[in-house]
User: Fold these one by one.
Assistant:
Number 1:
Amino acid sequence: MFVVLSCQDLRKFIRLEFREISGMTKQGEVICSIHFDDYQIQVHMPVDGKIISINDLLRTKEKDVLLQQPENNGWIVLVVPSRMYDKAGLLSLENYKK
């Protein structure tokens, strides 16, 4: 499962701060903050589960991939949900595109 942040209207961001990730993370917990010049956006865990990977591109000079290619390489974390088939509260592809 990919956690994708749509950033079509956002300008270049300054930095990303990831909280320490270990074990299971609950839905709604802040997993990352994206900092811009004058504000920040908190990224929340979409489901209960375990974060198994953070997109390495976001830790390099290529971090703008989040803004430039949100549907492809702009994922933030890879999550293994604790309830694999429970899609309650998640956006469908159609609703995401709206």
Number 2:
Amino acid sequence: MEGKLKVASILDTHSIAISTKNYNGKLSEGNVVKIVGKRVKIKNPDDGEIIGIHTLYKDTLEITEIHPNYVVAKKYEKEQLAFPIMSKKTLGELNTSTSPDLPNFNINVGDEVELV
């Protein structure tokens, strides 16, 4: 069984470290990851049968550094430039426990991470 990726440390307001110690998958710089917020069971209202599971995500980040037992991922926001096909990436703020505007959807150490 492949280990799960998890938030190991919040490095600053833009980046986190993700533990890869028990993860057997391949990760590369530029990979996109999502921080799992909550998994919601979707039930058929007629018979109560679970017909799916919907995942709500806290944030989307990009892997920027690869280390032996962890990777660093950063939050980027794309800014559309005047010319339609051009855009640039700028660092964005993470929703961490210090963010007062999202008290129930903050990124915390131990949160599960999924490779997109």
Number 3:
Amino acid sequence: MNRSSLDFLNYPPDARIGINEVAAAFGVSESTVRRRIKSKSIPHPLKDEPRLLRWRVKDIKEFLSK
């Protein structure tokens, strides 16, 4: 994982990040992120638009710190 993939850790807690940044944070593909959403093994995303998945930075940070 390169350094730029974790740049979102410096974003404000209520900032929203996309599936590509979440995938990079977990070191998996976007397809795996989608599977983990269905299995409820990662935080559930917000739906800003019907086909746009976004997560709050604080939700991902909290999950990663467990």
Number 4:
Amino acid sequence: MRIATSLFGLIVGVTIFTSPAGAENLSLRIARADTMIDPNTERPAVGVMLTGESAQAFARFTQANVGRQIRVIANGKVIASPVIQTPIVGGKLQFSGSLGTKEASDLANSLSADGGTVEVEPVEKKP
């Protein structure tokens, strides 16, 4: 599945809450994250697999937010800000782009840790 640069992640325990603007935010648990080489760019990337519950929640989230830019946050840092082009189903994500080998390895290790999560939230448009 592709979102702007490409991302994938896993989550077991899903927390859904509503922001003041009414946009859904998700906290997704990651089942597995591995380093890989993006076949399109031949650059380092991180492949993420979401847990079943998180994959379903993320599919609903992306379906409701097609055409919107989102933020993907890991360890308090924005790691991607793609625009959702199509609903993302199946629970597989890929983070690629400007990651070096060490950055990809560090991100995969961090996301693979017990209880690894990513946060996803819509980017609010300014009036």
